[in-house]
UniProtKB/TrEMBL annotation:
<dbReference type="InterPro" id="IPR036206">
    <property type="entry name" value="ThiamineP_synth_sf"/>
</dbReference>
<protein>
    <recommendedName>
        <fullName>Thiamine-phosphate pyrophosphorylase</fullName>
    </recommendedName>
</protein>
<comment type="pathway">
    <text>Cofactor biosynthesis; thiamine diphosphate biosynthesis; 4-amino-2-methyl-5-diphosphomethylpyrimidine from 5-amino-1-(5-phospho-D-ribosyl)imidazole: step 2/3.</text>
</comment>
<dbReference type="GO" id="GO:0004789">
    <property type="term" value="F:thiamine-phosphate diphosphorylase activity"/>
</dbReference>
<keyword id="KW-0808">Transferase</keyword>
<dbReference type="GO" id="GO:0009228">
    <property type="term" value="P:thiamine biosynthetic process"/>
</dbReference>
<keyword id="KW-0934">Plastid</keyword>
<feature type="domain" description="Pyridoxamine kinase/Phosphomethylpyrimidine kinase">
    <location>
        <begin position="23"/>
        <end position="266"/>
    </location>
</feature>
<keyword id="KW-0418">Kinase</keyword>
<keyword id="KW-0479">Metal-binding</keyword>
<dbReference type="InterPro" id="IPR029056">
    <property type="entry name" value="Ribokinase-like"/>
</dbReference>
<feature type="domain" description="Thiamine phosphate synthase/TenI">
    <location>
        <begin position="295"/>
        <end position="473"/>
    </location>
</feature>
<dbReference type="Pfam" id="PF08543">
    <property type="entry name" value="Phos_pyr_kin"/>
</dbReference>
<comment type="pathway">
    <text>Cofactor biosynthesis; thiamine diphosphate biosynthesis; thiamine phosphate from 4-amino-2-methyl-5-diphosphomethylpyrimidine and 4-methyl-5-(2-phosphoethyl)-thiazole: step 1/1.</text>
</comment>
<dbReference type="InterPro" id="IPR022998">
    <property type="entry name" value="ThiamineP_synth_TenI"/>
</dbReference>
<keyword id="KW-0547">Nucleotide-binding</keyword>
<comment type="function">
    <text>Essential for thiamine biosynthesis. Bifunctional enzyme that catalyzes the phosphorylation of hydroxymethylpyrimidine phosphate (HMP-P) to HMP-PP and condenses 4-methyl-5-(beta-hydroxyethyl)thiazole monophosphate (THZ-P) and 2-methyl-4-amino-5-hydroxymethyl pyrimidine pyrophosphate (HMP-PP) to form thiamine monophosphate (TMP).</text>
</comment>
Length: 498
């Protein structure tokens, strides 16, 4: 990890060193590694093995750097910068592989992630057949993880046909026999597969890790990005399988977000690692204020359907009644319409869990639960200006939310609720305990309505800013009237405790 000074104390920053080729089109290679690590909040240094001339059409040229200069780059970084994880991409010569092995023996690191880049997706050869024996016999036995796609796995296994998930399982075991501690065979190019399935093998257990297949041409650099994202999570201290799962979700989110971008004229475009390119703001983003949490309206499609109203109509009515912030649990095309409605009224709007939907619709942020995407990853994807809320029941969860970059916490369920079955309640005492310990503003949630909202607010503790409600608003015949009534109760409660 990179060391920095913070109030006289050293703070360690997770550090990945990528050893790979440069992609002039910036979709793959070290450019992808840099962007992925930046998105995930990890420092990334680079050792360039080759400079390529390539774009969305293919690779037009490869200029391999001298091995002694590659060695000099490695020594410069490893001798000075406390690298946690080394991730490799394009290693175009036997001598280059041996330089790498010598360097990490001299300067040991926590983990070595090998992405065996030998053939580009376009079919261009990036490493000759002479490299294959040293890969098998010397590099893979040193690797903590190797991440071949189907072509690379077949190449490592002497041309083995890989056409089914069962083939991938066999390949993962055979590659593991070559020495790496873990193997991830990537199935994104698997024929006739509805989902994108990768097979992970740790020497004991086989895992089939599925994700949604995104229909897009913008896939250039996904392999490099996945490997460097795994390396980034390992540098943070995560165990291997957890790192793989989080990295897969990040790649899926980025692919989905940038699926419609048009960069280049070729068959395979790059994707947007930082999830920023589609966002074009004409005005500065609205700053989060704790008072926004005063009357937090959480939509419910079932309840609105019961009363025959659209999500957008329900949102309009809630705002008219005095809702100060809105959370959408509905990820339909109405998201953009609801965002437009809220922004026109100066009311922030959040999306439940889905980072990609929040960015695509230009919502103000997201709210996540304890079992959803980690807050630190959400922050790295959304950037500093978006709002992030996280559900918390315990003091430890509240502390972690603050550490990982949340803006507020939703604490509950305070009372039993019909909207979430088997949701453990914390009661007013539990809510009070969380509020007193929290360093973030708190909104109470769970079973709160007209009959008990006053009792929640009158516990009169620091950080409790408001209540979040679902049924009390959206299961009423008139959302606007219900919101007005609840808003008035909350105002009276606040005046009473003053």
């Amino acid at each position: 990890m990179v060391s920095t000074e913070n109030n006289g104390h050293k703070m360690k920053i997770p550090h990945v060193m990528t050893v790979a080729g440069s992609d002039s089109g910036a979709g793959a290679g070290i450019q992808a590694d840099l962007k992925a690590c930046a998105a995930l909040g990890v420092y990334c240094s680079t050792v360039i093995t080759a400079v390529t001339a390539q774009n969305t059409v293919g690779v037009q040229g490869v200029n391999i750097l001298p091995e002694d200069f590659v060695a000099e780059q490695m020594k410069s970084v490893l001798s000075d910068m406390e690298v946690d994880v080394v991730k490799t991409g394009m290693l175009p010569s036997v001598g280059m592989v041996k330089v790498l092995l010598h360097s990490i023996k001299e300067y040991p690191v926590q983990a070595l992630v090998v992405d065996p880049v030998m053939v580009a997706t376009s079919g261009d050869v990036l490493a000759g057949s002479s490299v294959l024996p040293v890969f098998r016999q010397e590099l893979l036995p040193m690797a903590d993880l190797v991440t071949p796609n189907l072509k690379e796995a077949s190449y490592l296994l002497g041309g083995m046909h890989l056409e089914t998930v069962a083939d991938m399982r066999s390949a993962a075991k055979l590659i593991h026999d070559m020495g790496p501690r873990n193997v991830l065979v990537k199935g994104g190019d698997l024929p006739a597969s509805m989902d994108a399935v990768d097979v992970f093998f740790d020497g004991v257990n086989l895992y089939e890790l599925g994700s949604t297949r995104i229909n897009t041409r913008n896939t250039h650099g996904t392999g490099c990005t996945l490997a460097s994202s795994i390396a980034a999570e390992l540098a943070k201290g995560l165990p291997m399988l957890s790192a793989v799962k989080i990295a897969k979700r990040y790649v899926e989110t980025a692919l989905n977000y940038g699926k419609d971008m048009a960069i280049g004229r070729g068959p395979q475009g790059p994707f947007d690692h930082l999830l920023k390119l589609k966002v074009c703001r004409s005005v500065a983003p609205r700053a989060f204020c704790p008072s926004d949490l005063f009357l937090y309206a959480v939509t419910d499609s079932g309840m609105n359907g019961k009363w025959g109203r659209s999500i957008s109509d329900a949102v309009k009515a809630a705002i008219e009644g005095g809702a100060t912030i809105v959370q959408l649990r509905d990820f339909i095309e109405a998201a953009k319409e609801c965002v437009s409605i809220c922004h026109s009224k100066g009311v922030p709007i959040l999306i439940n869990d889905r980072v990609d939907v929040a960015l695509a619709s230009d919502a103000d942020g997201v709210h996540v639960g304890q079992s959803d995407m980690p807050v630190s990853l959400v922050r790295s994807l959304l950037g500093p200006e978006k709002i992030i809320g996280v559900s918390c029941k315990t003091l430890q969860q509240a502390h972690e939310a603050w550490i990982n970059g949340a803006d507020y916490i939703g604490s509950g369920g305070v009372f039993p609720t019909n909207t979430k079955a088997n949701n453990k309640t914390i009661g007013l005492d539990g809510l009070k305990e969380v509020c007193l310990a929290s360093k973030l503003p708190v909104v109470a949630i769970g079973g709160i309505g007209l009959s008990n909202a006053h009792s929640v607010m009158e516990i009169n503790v620091p950080n409790l800013e408001g209540v979040a409600v679902v049924s009390a608003l959206f299961n009423a015949e008139c959302v606007s009237s219900a919101t007005k009534q609840l808003h008035e109760i909350l105002k009276q409660a606040v005046q009473t405790r003053k």
